[in-house]
Design goal:
CATH topology of the largest domain: Aldehyde Dehydrogenase, Chain A, domain 1
InterPro entries: Ald_DH/histidinol_DH, Ald_DH_C, Ald_DH_CS_CYS, Ald_DH_CS_GLU, Ald_DH_N, Aldehyde_DH_dom, LUC3-like
Enzyme class: oxidoreductase
Helix content: 25-40%
Keywords: Oxidoreductase
Strand order of the largest sheet: 14-15-16-13-12-17-18
Strand content: 15-25%
Number of helices: 15
CATH class of the largest domain: Alpha Beta
Organism: Marinomonas spartinae
CATH architecture of the largest domain: 3-Layer(aba) Sandwich
Structural class: alpha/beta
GO molecular function, one term: phenylacetaldehyde dehydrogenase (NAD+) activity
């Protein structure tokens, strides 16, 4: 069994205590992860603080070179990291959107981010003087990541923070710490010591990061409830925050669609990573004139998708990652049926024996049904009919979440007009959840604060300083 260590100041750091990490497909013990104490956390934060002056003083082009070195070392070790992801998270290693896809995305995202520039802006230059707008790094950024995309989301947090001149302490989810620990170990083979550090353990570490006086920014991806706690805890020290929180994305299918043609796109928009994706489609609204045909086409497509162990040949989807989330999915599907939902395929399960939840489609008339109003974050999709586009938009917006949405139509102009009225941070047309590194990503309402990706995401890791002369 491989030993995993924290990385502090460029070196492996052992802890007296540890916690177990299990394979969600088999329930087998994979490894024990280091469990840091609050004193050890303080030591790690101090290392990041000590590394900040030298790192932030490097020329921007030098940091770009270091970011490209990170991409190189991740690419060279992609199969090893993907294998760890599959063991601890469950997603199939060779699936179209599996763990090798996640590593490929992480490498590509890193390379793209390295191309972003952060030039000085000249706001004024005339007889009255010159005004320059500079972007300065914040200091130490704390990254707190979830268990669904343990490497890719860590890259989203870490790379722009480093490029803009900050140092980083990263705390991954205790469900999936191993791939992140290995990734940060590899990063330290090409970076100066103390620039990127790792810490693993319980929720008390996240709370300590949130209110620590030497942490200048928190980047958090996770539930809305936890995000509110992070925001509250960070208030005393007036930290910068980027919070990407829960989503309950709606898709709207307009009546001009070909149900069979859109079925694959609808399916993968909802079931990418087994539905365990913040920006996956969680609710599908279909015009009543084609409702039955869409339900039938989706059901037929879903029946051919193989669910299984992440190392099983042909498996496209794996298990729900943990028992807590499995129970949430099963409970919401059960409640949806009790309140009038009709199961077209799949669950609920009466006596589950493992964490494999069947691909589930539920036909629902009531927009207040629990499976519609609550984020399931798993392989279950409610399908709701509507009669008018106005009704569809109103139902889609009748939710506290506002991360993403999608509109499906052969008429892109009509789809765009509907998209403009959806209350969410990103809207896709004829696809769903296709995040990309040049498109700022963030939520409205209860789905978050601030944005990631692109120039806007990079600048979110800086302060403005104006020099007037």
């Amino acid at each position: 069994m491989k030993n995993y260590h924290l990385i502090n100041n460029g070196k492996a750091m052992s802890t007296l205590d540890s916690f177990k990490v299990f394979n969600p497909s088999t329930s087998e013990l994979i490894a024990e992860a280091p469990k840091a104490t609050l004193d050890e956390l303080n030591t790690i934060i101090q290392s990041a603080r000590d590394a900040f002056p030298q790192w932030s003083s490097l020329a921007y082009s030098e940091r770009q070179n270091y970011i490209n070195k990170i991409a190189d070392v991740l690419e060279q070790n992609s199969e090893e990291i993907a294998t760890i992801i599959t063991k601890e998270q469950g997603k199939p290693i060779g699936a179209t959107l599996g763990s090798m896809f996640e590593i490929g995305g992480a490498v590509a995202w890193t390379r793209y981010t390295a191309t972003l520039e952060m030039p000085v802006k000249i706001l004024q230059e005339d007889e009255n003087g010159r005004v320059e707008l500079h972007r300065r790094p914040l200091g130490v950024v704390a990254s707190i990541t979830p268990w669904n995309w343990p490497v890719l989301i860590a890259i989203w947090h870490i790379i722009p923070a480093l490029l803009s001149g900050n140092t980083v302490v990263c705390k991954p989810s205790p469900y999936t710490p191993l791939s992140t620990l290995r990734m940060i170990e590899l990063m330290n083979s090409v970076l100066p010591k103390g620039v990127i550090n790792s810490v693993t353990g319980g929720d008390e570490l996240g709370a300590a990061l949130s209110n620590h006086s030497d942490i200048n920014k928190i980047v958090f991806t996770g539930s809305t409830a936890t995000g509110k706690k992070v925001m509250s805890s960070a208030a005393d020290t007036l930290k910068h925050l980027t919070l990407e929180l829960g989503g309950n994305d709606a898709g709207i299918v307009l009546p001009d669609c070909d149900p069979e043609a859109i079925a694959p796109g609808l399916f993968w928009g909802a079931f990418i990573n087994n539905g365990q994706t913040c920006a996956a489609m969680k609710r599908l609204y279909v015009h009543r004139s084609i409702y039955d045909q869409v339900c039938e086409s989706l059901t037929n497509f879903a029946k051919n998708i193989k669910v299984g162990d992440g190392f099983e040949e042909g498996a496209e989807l794996g298990p729900v990652q943990n028992k807590m989330q499995f129970d949430i999915v099963n409970r919401l599907v059960t409640q949806s049926v009790e309140q009038g939902g009709k199961v077209l395929l799949g669950g609920p399960l009466d006596n589950p024996k493992d964490l494999f939840f069947p691909i589930t489609l539920v036909a629902i008339e009531d927009n207040q049904n629990p499976l519609v109003q609550n984020e399931q974050f798993g392989p279950a999709l409610p399908i709701i009919p509507y009669d008018t586009v106005e009704e569809a938009i109103a139902m889609a917006n009748d939710n506290d979440a506002g991360l993403g949405g999608s509109v499906w139509s052969t008429d892109k102009a009509k789809a765009s007009s509907v998209a403009a009225r959806m209350e969410c941070g990103s809207v896709w047309i004829n696809k769903h959840g296709a995040v990309q590194p040049n498109s700022p990503f963030g939520g409205t309402k209860s789905s978050g604060l601030g944005v990631e990706f692109g120039e806007e995401g990079l600048l979110a890791n800086t302060n403005i300083q104006c020099i007037l002369s």
